[in-house]
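Title: Prediction job returns without error message
Component: structure pipeline
Severity: low
Priority: P3
Assignee: unassigned

Description:
Job completed but the reporter wants confirmation the result is attached to the right record. Sequence as submitted:
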Amino acid sequence: MGDARCTAPRRGMPSGTRAKGPRVFLVGFVGLALLSVPLTGGRLGALAEVRFRWVGLLVGALVVQVAIISFVHGGPSWFHPAVHIASYGVALAFLVANFSISGLPLVGFGGLANFVAIAANGGVMPASKTALVDAARTHSHNAFDNSAPVAHAHLRFLGDVFAMPGWMPLHNVFSIGDLLIALGAAVAIHAACDTCLARFGRHLVHQNGPAEATSDPTDAGSLVS
């Protein structure tokens, strides 16, 4: 698991930049979702009324990811990859405990996609070299690369194959799982704040209710009377 792909410099990538952090660009996306709430008739204060279960699991998983990627260097070759995989498992446990909250199942599916890709590749998210160059990301000599090119990667399509260009704020590579996480977070925020987008979504989900009711066998008498 802890082989040269986590410690050797990458060729063909810009110098002077760091390897990918713990999905920090998602913070920017969540920020945009929060800014859109007042613009769509929602109430940001409603977020304080949402009750999550087992919040400590999520906080702990995020703290561990930041620590192993940015601060904890050295140690056995298996340590960082193993802890990386474990942190995803802990975060997924939090999401499963909160599946009843709108949007979090989608976040969970995205997290599961990332977890599967990381676990299948020895604790490292396989990244496209082209995407890393486009995002102006390169190797850090003294930190764990949680996202890096992997020779003969498994489930490559679930890896970091997309890129936000280097000129954008929080530029980074990202995966299909990240897209699902971002979308799920936006759904959760708008649903909790009861924006017009959330109300429209609920209308679409329930608009077939009356049609289904007319097909109920208990209504057959009224149809022929």
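Comment from assignee: result matches the submitted record. The chain is about 50% helix and 5% strand.
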